[in-house]
Amino acid sequence: MSGVPLHMEKFIMAAILSLCYLVPGLSGQDATVRGKVTDPGGQPIQGATAVLLNPADSVMQFFSVTDAYGAFQMQARHGDSLLLQVSFLGCRTYYEEMVLDKGETDLGTIVLEEGQQVLEEVIVSEDRIPIRIKGDTLEYDAGAFQTKPNATVEELFQKLPGVQVESDGTVKTQGKEVQKVLVDGKEFFGDDPKIATKNLPAEAVDKVQVFDKKSDVAEFTGVDDGVRDKTINLSLKDSHKQGRFGNISAGYGDQGRYRGKTSLNQFSKKTRLSFIGSTNNINEQSFSFSDYLRMNGGLGGFGSGRVRIEIGGEGGMALGGLQNGINTGFGAGLNLTHDFTEKSRLQASYFFNGLKNVLDEDRQSQEFFPAGDLFSTNLTDREQHRYNHRLSMRYELDLDSTQQVRLSGQFGFNNFDQQLFRDDLTSDDQEALLNASDREQGLDGNENSWNLQGSYLKKFNAKTGRFISFSGKLRSGTFEQAGLLNALNTFYESTPALLDTLRQEQLFSRDQVSYEARVSYTEPIGKRKYVELIAEYGNDRSEVIQDVYNLVAAFPEKVLDEELSNAFDQSFARTSAGGRLQQNFKSSQVSVGGKLQRSILNGEQREAASPIRQEFLNFLPFLSMQFDFTTSNHLNIDYRTSVNEPTLRQLQSVVDNSDPLNIYIGNPDLRPEYSHALSANYFSFSQFSGINLFGIVEATYTRNMIVNAKTFDEFFRQTTQPINTPEAWRVFGNFDFGSRLKFLNLRFNVTASTLYDRYESRLNGAPNPIETFNHSYRIRFDNRNKEHFDIALGGQASWQVVQSAASELASSKYRNQSLFIETALTAMKNWRFEQSFRYQNWQGIAGAEGQKTSILNLSVSRYFMDNRLELKFQVMDVLNQNRGLTQNAGLNSIEFVRYNALGRYFMLSAQYSLKKFGNEGPDISIEKL
Q1: Alpha-carbon gap, residue 784 to 190, rounded angstroms
Q2: Is the model's pLDDT at 307 over the cut of 50?
Q3: Residue 434 in contact with residue 427, Cβ under 8 Å?
Q4: Which helix (H) or strand (E) holds 650?
Q5: Spatial separation of the C-alpha atoms in residues 346 and 419, rounded to whole Å
Q6: In angstroms, rounded to a whole number, what is the distance separating the alpha carbons of residues 144 and 924?
């Protein structure tokens, strides 16, 4: 293929090979089945499901849903022996066996009646209806969707129409991200959906139920407060509700690569006990991202203070790694759920996580100035170790039909250490060297925290909808960090060059305590009309001590540096009172209200001339409107106001010199931000036609927004300080459309998003307006019939434009494109072949050349022992091209980052499925008389 770049040629060849596999999955879609469904009176039934099943195992092959006229139509393959199933809630299910001819088959009118139905010689001992609509709940029969042996719930979700699983494991349905995944109505390892989807076996699931979960208050009182969480409940098979089941897997490869994972479950009627464990050095996160976020609280006490916008999105394609570089992770978790009675239950979980991260990084950056740009090169060699313990508990008690109590608590214990070596060079646009820094830094520390939450709710029987609720929160945390800094700084603007040596011990500690209390009273004032009165009080207290000692050879061996040392106490108290008026209609809801909030910010700095005291009085109105045109067609309009106080680090005027060329200092004169936000959110979804439309537009206007100002001294050292800018705008829009391509038996999804930011910073004391545009487009195709072959292919393009008043040339434009194709083939009995290929292209910025990578992964699996044992051989990064790459944009800068990433490796692994149950439930069977 002359004239085609080598990387693109490899992509095209891989795409052709993968598409060759696609042909069997697309061939034969040349038959059409149509019909009409009515009740015995001849009235059309809308929303009935028409499904073509495989008679041998009742696995769904094709499906449709009736429209307002009771009509349905679906594509199928001619020559197949199929079983037609037509069902509607409250009616008898209709069955008919058929072998389709080419062209169109018109079944005429099908009448649904009550009771069990016998058609000719077909008897169905237990109905398997793949999809049902039960009020506001969409229910899938898991057994009707075939998955590979030992598949997880996540892989089951990938088979369900209307459910989308992102590459990071995020689950979306009906255009929204799923916030909760319940198991038989109860939480599983807390509130992270991915723990359930990645660790529970698909074969344990009987039904998958999708619904919008109301708040605890709304479910208990019957007064809809408009709060909704997109939720999926996994209803387990009766056989898996009592017994032991799980999976154990282990793998080892060349270069010492390894991976091990365990998931064990012991369930009974009242008690469920689950254990999960994981260890690997191939950049796979052990459990949930939220656990790692809790661990990231440290290692930032002496950060450089830079604010950056990352647009890379793929994390340098580090093959699933959580952090840049090479990660070794390990951890274990234990979850207990116990029902004392029908009105009393306990859920508790414990996690332990460990992470070792090794990073080698090359960062090229460009700073824009009217007098000439600055170019920097930063080389970093860093090793981190982090360890996290987390215990969480939740207790629910219904005292009686009118009183409810909820108690929960979380406890965390973390420690960490880091060793860093970094070399920095800065030059001007004529390549003249301006300054340099060689830095060695060691850190270690720990963080402990706990929080308790409780609520009490009382309904009054005298009048429906009248109730009172009390809730409170108490949080406490301590953080301690010790660091050693050795740095040699050279400034070439001086003649001769000026050398500055730093040898410091840096000690940092923070103690925080906060509490909140809230009481609300709701009174009905008419038909589906309510008024709520609310009173709240909260206080956040923090104490920070930073002591910096200069290390010297003479006695005493260390001397306190008073300019860099400081102690700061802060208190932010807020009192508010307000109310809201809510009107619920049959298919809509309107809520309007507001509150008056008085805030007092007190700060006292060691040896400061006078303490800081700021007092604010704000009115915070809000408006919410929800329109439910159908069960899957909604429009939400919200207007909100909020106050955001400055952080403790932003307020204290202490110098952070952990990066000697990039100094950070707080600002005690900061004022809280006041924001207005208006959003419109619309989505329409047809579960059976497969068409979804989702759109959101958000606009935010902020007064006194806190942004960072930059100044450079005569040695080109940068100092960053937070300031209030008069006003700032932020506009975000996202559009998502998905549908089916029936003639190819494919589904496609296209997503477009844009983000606009405008605010004013300051550069060397002068106003520096900043405008940022981010645009992204993505398209994806998936085949619908996944029984023997599965494919996903598509691409993404994103780019960013940053305009700054610092220089006419400061407008930076760069983009990133990617193409991908993933296939899985079950060609022979007990064999499965999988491949994934991704081509990515970064445009060069900050003086760096454009980068291109092609990542190809291959694997083959063989199943034994009735599919309970799986042996898998995989080759990751076959072409050995994986490189860590990231593009960033700052206030008046752009940068291009390269870092170490996993290259090619081989791995042989085994997975064994454990099963030991009590009495198993009846199997679904179809027999001929």
Answers
A1: 33
A2: no
A3: yes
A4: helix 648-651
A5: 42
A6: 11
